[in-house]
Specification:
The protein is an alpha/beta fold. The protein contains eleven helices and eight strands.
Length: 298
């Protein structure tokens, strides 16, 4: 009857994975020979063992021959699987590599899947295109602006809710330089509790498991720069992000840094000072969202 499992389906379920393995005539004869040797060794332990007998004198029943063939198929199946496994292990790893167009499309699809109703328009598409160029490693990125360089990280400016954090979250695993996201506000609270001993957590290169792009070491993206208030830890008073940026600046070639901010340049200078802003210009490619960008959270 339609819808019921067929006899062929049942056979395919109960059939051993190695039942379809084919043996050559030589392999079959070797299987019989191995079984004869096994039986011969057992007869040698018998008190009735004839010292003049030989392995060739051992006879095999049809059932024993079937067992010998089945065993040979099983061993051949395991050998094939083992060889295939080591071939995969030893083969050079191939990591995905996307063009800017492909990366743009994939990122857009992921965002729409995870955030239904997210709007892509004239206020965020130019920035998405620039990020796609940067994180695909396409040289066109450096032709957008004379200050742009792959040796720098990204500073993404934009008003509240424009999508800058969302974009940076969805690009953090990429084929150029993967990174991890950290909240500046959370970092400042950690300093208030732990003091300067926590700073190494954010200035050192992050090691982790290999991701799909083959990266085991990760940079850092500090989200919402400016929400890190000047904090007190007992008698210590510091703007901890200034300390982190200064340390990361000295190692920027090996430890890529990105950040997002709602601030203007004047506000950054007011909070962190000219010295820090000077370092930031060397550390970051500046990407600006339109100040009139709508708040996507509303």
């Amino acid at each position: 009857m339609e819808g019921l499992i067929s006899e062929e389906d049942i056979k395919s379920i109960v059939t051993s994975p190695y039942s379809n393995i084919e043996l050559s005539g030589e392999e079959i004869q070797q299987a019989f020979k191995d079984l004869r040797y096994s039986k011969f060794r057992k007869t040698m332990e018998s008190p009735n063992f004839d010292i003049l007998s030989s392995v060739d004198d051992i006879e095999l029943t049809d059932e024993e021959k079937d067992i010998a063939i089945d065993s040979a198929k099983r061993h051949k199946y395991c050998a094939i699987k083992t060889e295939a496994y080591w071939k995969r292990v030893k083969a050079p790893k191939v990591y995905p590599k996307y063009s800017a167009v492909e990366l743009n499309r994939l990122t857009t699809q992921r965002i729409l899947k995870d955030i239904p109703g997210f709007v892509f328009d004239k206020f965020n598409m130019p920035q998405l295109n620039i990020l796609s160029l940067y994180f695909s490693g396409e040289k066109r990125f450096e032709s957008i602006d004379p200050t742009y360089s792959f040796k720098k990280g990204l500073m993404v400016f934009g008003p509240l809710g424009c999508g800058k954090t969302t974009f940076m979250e969805y690009f953090q695993n990429n084929q150029v330089r993967s990174y991890r996201m950290f909240s500046c506000h959370k970092i400042s609270r950690e300093f208030a509790v732990e003091g300067f001993k926590m700073i190494n957590r954010y200035i050192e290169v992050i090691g982790s498991f290999e991701n799909v792009f083959g990266h085991k070491m990760y940079g850092s993206c500090f989200d919402d720069l400016g929400t890190d208030e000047i904090r007190n830890n007992y008698s210590n008073k510091a703007n901890i992000m200034s300390e982190i940026f200064l340390d990361r600046y000295s190692n920027m070639s090996k430890n890529m840094t990105h950040t997002t901010a709602n601030l203007t340049v004047d506000q950054i200078i007011e909070i962190y000072g000219e010295r820090i802003w000077s370092r930031m210009r060397e550390m970051f490619n500046i990407i600006l969202f339109d100040p009139n960008s709508p708040d996507r959270r509303k």
